Amino acid sequence: MTAPAPLALYIHWPFCVAKCPYCDFNSHVRETIDQTLWREALLRDLAHEAALLPGRQLGSIFFGGGTPSLMPPETIAALIDAAAGHWSFADDIEISMEANPNSAEAARFAAVAQAGVNRLSLGLQALDDAALRFLGRAHDVAEGLAALDAAQRSVDRVSIDLIYARPGQSLADWDSELTRALGFGTDHLSLYQLTIEPGTRFETDVRKGDFTPTDPDEAADLFELTQAMTTAARRPAYEVSNHAAPGQESRHNLAYWRYGDYAGIGPGAHGRRGSHATVRHKKPENWLSALERNGHGLAEERALPPAEQAGEALMMGLRLAEGVDLAALAARTGVARETLLDETAVARLAGHGLLVREGDRLIVTPQGMLLLDGILAEIVAV
After folding, report:
1. Residue 295 placed within a domain
2. Whether this model's pTM surpasses 0.85
3. What is the C-alpha separation between 101 and 299, in angstroms, rounded?
4. Is the backbone of residue 345 left (phi > 0), alpha (psi -120 to 50) or beta?
5. CATH number of the domain that 178 lies in?
6. How far is Cα 277 from Cα 325, in angstroms, rounded to an integer?
7. Same-domain status, 253 and 310
């Protein structure tokens, strides 16, 4: 019998100093945080999840948020040590943390690394001070670059986040900015187009006419430029918005996209435990109350029917440049392969160069990635 793929662990720290105007993540601003209370609560939530996933090997840990670089290093160390007590660690376990490039947080990168983090994902977001002000960021370019230097001195693997397709950003602007970013020497870049998410301040600003989002055709040109430049720099896209040198892909995120098992703890965290989906309470206070009542922060846990599992796996896996092995997916979920896809739509879109078949594997082409949401809506039949 084949051993299960390594388990992934996601730990959500829900607090931020301020809410960015584009952000729709589960983040909250609080004047004070009882660090001891939160450390013990996260450890308790972790113990509950670990008891339901015994005997697994852990391949990755990801501290996300919110702003997890605001966590005290001793809390990070305690959670990593607890995870090591619950599960065996892969020899090359990836332990990532999202971090803002504020100088106060960057000063703790060495201590964070000593706690066990070996990969930092740094939210630079832009290399232009006016753009950073527009995005509501608390740092400027100089502070961001100082933080990048501190990150690269602290850990071996650093990823940077940038947001492009900002209002008024030209192809030449992005070419210059991305050229500079590719020269920083990081082996991973997350490059996201600015999207206006419901419930964010930017949605309100757009509705009021304060700014106009980038035209879709211009955004498509920026996307194609991004693919060409990262490929030439040997940092090709391995997922719609994520680019890496070979072997430097985020192993934690690959666990999501390949539809592996992952435990999610902390407010609002999602998880996939075998055929069950889990969701924690989103509001920090509600999560704490649930933990006190029940010994865990779960708001919902439900069994996923095989067809729903297959549909989710397709929706996630087709984001990857490697695509999806349809035979393996059918065998894993028990869903007949011929029912997974609308083959008429697949054939039509393949004829337009948006999809390719390589044996049992279905792959969305780079041209198709521009239209991914529409492609998925047409071809996924489960």
Report:
1. no
2. yes
3. 33
4. alpha
5. 3.20.20.70
6. 22
7. no
Do residues 190 and 318 both lie within one domain? Answer: no
Q: Which amino acid is at 238?
A: Y
Whole-number pLDDT of residue 351: 96
**Owner of token pair 């997916």:** 329
Q: Count of domains in the chain?
A: 2
190 and 327 housed in the same domain: no
Give the CATH number for residue 322. 1.10.10.920
Give 380's DSSP letter.
Answer: B
For residue 148, give Cα distances in angstroms to 29, 95, 103, 305, 365.
25, 18, 10, 44, 33
Which of 237, 257, 277 marks a domain boundary? 257
Residue 2, pLDDT score: 64
Tell me whether residue 264 is in a domain.
no
Phi, psi of 259 (to 5 degrees): 60, 45
pLDDT digits (tens, 9 = 90+) for 327-370: 999 999 999 999 999 999 999 999 999 999 999 999 999 999 99
HSE (CB half, 13 Å, CA atoms) of 3?
7
Residues 315 and 166 in one domain: no
The answer to whether residue 262 is domain-embedded is: no
Query: Does 117 map to a domain?
Result: yes
Q: How confident is the model at residue 107 (pLDDT cuts 50, 70, 90)?
A: confident
pLDDT value for 98: 96
- Cis before 66? omega within 30: yes
196 and 79, same structural domain?
A: yes
DSSP letters spanning 45-61: HHHHHHHTSTTPEEEEE
Domain that holds residue 126: 7-257
Instruction: Report residue 125: phi and psi, to 5°.
Output: 70, -35
Average pLDDT over residues 141-153: 96
Q: Report the candidate in 135, 142, 185 with the shortest Cα–Cα distance to residue 160.
A: 185
Please give the average per-residue pLDDT across 3-31, as a whole number: 90
| H or E stretch covering 98 | strand 88-99
| One-letter amino acid for residue 96 of the chain | S
Do 245 and 319 fall within a single domain? Answer: no
Q: Which residue's entry shows tokens 């388990």?
A: 7
On the question of pLDDT at 1 being above 60, the answer is no
